[in-house]
What does this fold into?
Amino acid sequence: MDKTPNAKRRTQNAKRGIEWRSVLARREAIVLLILFAGSVIFNFTHHSYLTTGNIVSILSNVSVVAIVSIGMTMVIVTGGIDVSVGSMLALCMLMSAKTMVAGGGLLTALLVSLGVGLFAGLINGTIVAFGRIHPIIVTLGTLNIIRAVHIQILGPQWITPPPAAHHLALGAFIGWPIPWWLTVLLGVLFSLFLTRRPLGRHVYAIGGNTEAARLAGVNVLGVIIFVYAMTGMLVGLAAVIQLGQSGTVQPNAGLGLELQAIAATVIGGTSILGGKGTVAGAVLGALLVEAVHNALITVGNLGLIEGLIIGMLILIAVGVDVIQNRRAIRI
Amino acid sequence: MRGIAAARLALLIVLFAVLFLYFSLNVPNFLGAYNIYSVVQDGVIIGILGIGESLVIISGGGGIDLSLGSMLGLSGMILGITNIEWGMNIWLAVAACLLTGLLLGCVNGLLVSLVRIPPLIVTLATYYGYAAIALQLTTTRPLPDATQPNLPQSFPTDFITIGNGNMQDIAWLSWFPKINGEGIPFQVFFVFLPLTIITAFVLRRTVGGRYLYGVGVNALAARFSAINVWGVRFWSYAAAGLFAGIAAVVQTALSASATPNVGEGLNLQAITIAVLGGVSITGGEGTVPGVILSTLIVIFLYNGLGLQLGNDAGVWQPFALGILLIGSVVLNEWVRRRLSVS
It folds into this structure.
């Protein structure tokens, strides 16, 4: 019988159930824990926080950012980044609002919005893949170009379309807001896609090691274009929800969305270096960001330092990740 | 290396000449002495940020600083608060502003080099954080604040001169000829020129400058040459913070007011200027003259479009900036490939 201390510890661990530990060490579990514990503690001082009405409003408001961060997760997993999502959202909102003004129903408006998003995403993906330019440069450029196109088409008047997307954005189904149902549905679909389908695995393969993936026969350029295009489509869907919720299209629609989506994604455990991350984490990260936002509004007069708190959340999340994987990061 | 840099510089000169010629011929007031004067006056701020951004990008390892505009806003607010609210001497307040910029840059540098969080994430987070602190300090009000009559209602005149004076206002420089009645802006001669000369000298002629390029080109080789890679990177972020502090002094003096969100749109411009100026986004490449030329291109493009399009300019200026940004990187790559083949 082996009596070395290591072996002893190993058998003890096995008795206590080591699976639980690995589950609790996952980022999704940590975020969920912080979310629950934080809400309960905050509820001691502000009793209106954990009421059904407030929870429903958090779930309803989080959907736009959460849906966009599903796409952002895929992009970041390939080792890229997309900072143009805010501008894309604005343009998609505008085009679907124009469709509604012209008499189109919800479905037509949704198709137009998805189409615009797909087109913008294809442009991003194509330049990133074929131009061999760093994604942040490409999308910083398209951020400005798309915003300019948006403002030019919008003109001086804000557009207030007929409320065709009202039900989709603000309605409820079995107690939950419809946008949140959509978020959960998309989250499950994309989770399954990324973990079970070959194309989904290729997304991770590229982020882990692009050269190895290419040599293994992965169509690297195709997959990169695919993730940016998919992000565009998700933005297109989020745009219709946003349009239904806000009712109008303004010049500064979607401003800062990219930062919220990136924050949600990295808080949810996606590594900015690529190759690692889950859709569930991103959705939970978006929930945490929205819960913080909501809590700050509940407190009042603290809205201005929201940026500071989100910034610190990002740094803590990534810092923990980096310190845990110190050895993996070379010079 | 040399060949690429020279080709780049020539290209930028041609681009600037074409732009300048186009606007001079097509826009009536473009070539007026007053217009050129005010463009250059404004341009100093973004030029300083562009040089700070270049230092960070040259240091490699995915180096980028998205927080320059926020650092500018926050250090400017420190200047306003120490002088207007606390009644501190203006030059001490300027020192506090510069120190704030340096400190904020050091925070970025520490997070990047000590904790080793990727720079994009660090500066994204501090971009949020610094801007939030700047807004919270005065709850979004600019200083001097007309709603608080018991506080001083302006900065001292000597200080305002930094942003609005001429170099010829100084007695022993008054012999310098004026062009069409317009002098040389104070901040160009006393801030921008010395700063660029010092930076160019440090980058080209000092050990630290050569280390910066070495770290950017090949961090592993630099480490085996006993260069403290992360130390060098730390100082590039600290320097960028200091440059943002300097830009904050000029900005506050120019507008005679400290405004919390003044730096909002400047981040992208700073990155565009650095990249257009030939700073390779992968690090290790870029020169000060290139960055100065690209600053000129960006500020005159903005101004020319503004004069030509009037109210529509707000739309097409960012559009042109986006095209310029992507175009300049494509151009960078193209020039590099061409030269490495031959």
About this structure: Chain B touches chain A through 47 residues (CB under 8 Å). Chain B has a mean pLDDT of 89. Residues 198 and 223 of chain B are 26 Å apart (CA to CA).
